[in-house]
Amino acid sequence: MTDPRDAAARYRARQSDESDAEAEPAPTQLTAENKHQFVESAIQVAMRRGEFDDLPGAGKPLEGLGSHHDPDWWIRRKIETENLTGLGPPAILLRTEDRELSDNLDRLGRESDVREVLEDFNRRVIAARRQLMGGPPVVTKTRDVDAEVQAWRERRAAHAASAPAAEQAARSPRPRLFRRRA
Fold this sequence. Notes:
The protein is an all-alpha fold. It is built from 6 helices and no strands.
């Protein structure tokens, strides 16, 4: 004897299969032959919806197009956009540090600190010239410590001579905001 509920479920399943077959054709499988058609239709639908309107850089030429081929273009662009420092081969880092060394020395207050910074810089230049890490050739020259210390002293003395005039202008009498009660 068959269960009437089971028979009813089979009947409903057959009816739904027949109605689905009539209503919707079976979805086509994505193959290599029809993949480009699928992509093109998806692009056309997105264009009709306006999803490509107002994109940043619309109507502008692509940056760096036509220039020489650089295999490391992506890392250079990341360094530029993120404004990262301290990254790169020692030769380039030492060139950058060499340009800014006098300004950095002027911020120091003691001669021993200036000598220590210069000796460290010279030590790193000599180590980079050995090319143990590879990279571009190091063209940065070592600094003469005694000559740099003398130049630091002269810059410091010149700054100290111009400082009194600036201090005197800053010391101009200011109105008092609060008065003491007697």
